[in-house]
Specification:
It contains 23 helices and 14 strands. The strands form three sheets. Strands 6-5-8-3-4-7 form a six-stranded antiparallel sheet. The chain has a six-stranded parallel sheet with strand order 12-11-10-9-13-14, with helices on both faces. The chain has a two-stranded antiparallel sheet with strand order 1-2. It is α/β, with parallel strands linked by helices and 581 residues long. The protein is elongated and about 95 Å long. The chain has three domains: 271 residues; 91 residues, Translation factors (Elongation Factor Tu (Ef-tu), domain 3, Beta Barrel); 165 residues, Rossmann fold.
């Protein structure tokens, strides 16, 4: 076989035995030693560690700041509306809360937040510059050794593996360190997976390109007789499947199938990648790290978050009462909460119902704060649709349920904000109501509460929907009084129906308007009511999340331009939840 590539007058395939070939081989390895490529894996890990450390410091700062402000001894010593950190954070939120056009997000799979997208762009630039900028990519001849581009990109892809498996856990170390809940970390889990795939493709193409260029398809086919070549096919194919099947339009259409296939394929990918690495260049250390993090997270979740928690309910389900609320909505109430007496506003749990899609484990926001877990569920396809159909012959039905959680929520202390604005649509009230209940409970128990003003805004289809949470709303209004402004907007014009219902008994405590408002206008109209520290919580559709995020982004100049506006505002913090993630 004659090579189409020569180096310093030597045929790269037929002149392997020449002394000058051996000398050129030695010189090439001296320029870029085989073992020197391991540093690229370390650079990859260092980048991830630095990012996590910055997020950890930010989390600690928030915890300290909330505590300090909440403590009356220090509250009035703060520098409001112009401190360096406040201005810096407001600039970050001004950019971070902005939204990219939905069509761009759909086709590129970029997160809707400009801040997240910019971070992913910078991370990708770092990874791919470290992979592609160093030269040379290929050695003079394939026989001089593996292409440096192929080696370093493969090592970098392997070094990303621990981050992939850490980020996939509902209970994970990054959440503990940064306060960022698992569903919000999912964006980064997907990004790291795609980055690993791109680096793996660079690794594969570089290994195939040079032998093909030197000896054509026959010489390339000869390489696949080597274990190091053919063992890489399986993990690459599995990684492609994991990345492609994780796209939003596939997950939403085939969620149950995706969920179960994803973890099985993830295990297969891990196993085949371990085989492919074959202890080369100490890359198995990254696999040990991934296995340690993954295993620890799984064990923690099993023994702390699920029915395997060592208490009286060990391996036992709990009775749940299912009650129909209207033609497509029902309520689930769990009263036996042994081991689940403490959860935070905005958190969710995964419920597994015995006898109904038992393998499915679906997330639901907790709409209550103590005494019982209450869930308001709109029936759709899959599990929720089946549960709702089972209520056709019953007003109330009991089922046995297993709880996994709680997870999520917000790492900030709501009681340390002067002003809280809660925005929800439909069943999104399950994510906003707990914040209201949390403040009301704290006031009732005479705990330290900084909050002096709360706006609770809820947009619903029908007046009947008020019955979902009318007891909670009236209870909070009785406790908080003028501190709470309740505004309910009913999209349907059913005033007569409302007046004929028993809801007229609570009409004096609820401000009900009969039209569908503009969420953007509602938030903008609240701008003059902002106080020193403000928390805005939004729960609803993706379009609502985009609208609210954009408006709150445009509020940030009130802080970093405080010299001009003279508002005295120190913080406008936004926490959003979407109906599906």
């Amino acid at each position: 076989m004659k090579s189409s590539v020569t180096f310093e007058g030597m045929d790269c395939i037929n002149d392997l035995m020449l002394p000058q070939y051996a000398a050129a081989h030695k010189k090439s390895l001296a320029e870029i030693p085989w073992a020197s490529n391991t540093k690229y894996g370390k650079y990859t890990v260092y980048f991830g560690i630095v990012v996590i450390f910055i997020a950890f410091v930010k989390h600690l700062w928030y915890l300290y700041r909330d505590y300090r402000y909440k403590n009356s001894k220090y509250r009035h010593q703060q520098n409001y509306g112009g401190s360096f950190v406040s201005v810096l954070l407001s600039y970050g939120r001004f950019v971070g809360y902005k939204q990219i056009p939905p069509v761009i997000s759909w086709y590129t799979s970029l997160p809707p937040s400009v801040g997240k997208s910019l971070f992913l762009f910078v991370s990708a630039l770092y990874l791919f510059c470290y992979s592609l900028v160093p030269h040379f990519w290929y050695r003079g001849c394939y026989g001089f050794g593996s292409p440096p581009l192929a080696i370093r990109s493969g090592i970098m892809a392997t070094a990303l593996t621990p981050f992939i498996y850490v980020l996939l856990g509902k209970a994970n170390m990054i959440t503990v360190l940064t306060g960022i809940s698992h569903e919000k970390l999912n964006t980064f889990h997907q990004f790291v997976g795609v980055a690993c795939l791109v680096l793996s493709l660079i690794h594969t193409i570089a290994f195939m390109y040079q032998p093909y260029k030197e000896g054509g398809s026959l010489f390339l086919a000869l390489q696949f007789t080597s274990f190091s070549f053919y063992s890489g096919i399986a993990p690459l194919v599995l990684l492609i499947w994991l990345c492609v099947a994780s796209k939003a339009f596939i997950r939403k259409k085939l969620y149950e199938i995706f969920l179960h296939m994803h973890w099985m394929v993830a295990i297969a990918y891990f196993a085949t990648l371990w085989v492919h690495i074959d202890n080369t260049l100490d890359m198995q250390d990254y696999m040990y790290g991934a296995l340690a993090f993954w295993g620890t997270q799984v064990l923690y979740r099993i023994f702390v978050k699920t029915c395997f928690k060592p208490n009286k309910m060990f391996m036992r389900g709990r009775p749940a009462k299912l009650t129909r609320l209207n033609e497509n909505t029902f309520e689930v109430v769990i009263e036996n909460l042994t081991g689940y007496s403490n959860w935070q506003p905005g958190q969710h749990v995964f419920l597994r119902f015995v006898g109904t899609h038992f393998l499915d484990n679906h997330p639901f926001s907790i709409a209550s704060m103590n005494g019982q877990m209450k869930f308001i569920i709109v029936a759709k396809k899959g599990l929720t649709g089946v549960l709702h159909k089972q209520l056709d012959d019953y007003v109330t039905k009991e089922k046995t349920v297993y709880i996994d959680g709680p997870y999520g929520g917000v790492a900030r202390d709501p009681l340390s904000f002067d002003r809280i604005i809660l925005l929800g649509t439909g069943s999104g009230v399950t994510a906003t109501l707990p914040f209201l209940l949390h403040v009301a409970n704290a006031v009732e128990l005479k705990k330290v509460v900084v909050t002096t003003s709360i706006s609770f805004i809820w947009v619903i289809r029908s007046t009947d929907d008020i019955s979902w949470v009318k007891n909670e709303l009236t209870h909070c209004k009785q406790i908080l009084g003028d501190m709470l402004d309740l505004s309910i907007y009913v999209a349907e014009q059913d005033l007569e129906k409302h007046l004929d219902s028993d809801l007229t008994k609570v009409i004096s405590t609820l401000n009900i308007e009969y039209y569908k408002p503009s969420i953007v206008r509602l938030v903008k109209d609240l701008t003059p009511t902002l106080l020193t520290r403000n928390m805005i919580v939004s729960s609803g559709s993706d379009s609502m999340r985009r609208d609210v995020s954009s408006v709150v982004s445009n509020m940030q100049p009130l802080i970093f331009n405080n010299d001009y506006h003279q508002t005295g505002i120190d913080e406008i913090f936004l926490h959003t939840e979407a109906f599906c993630w």
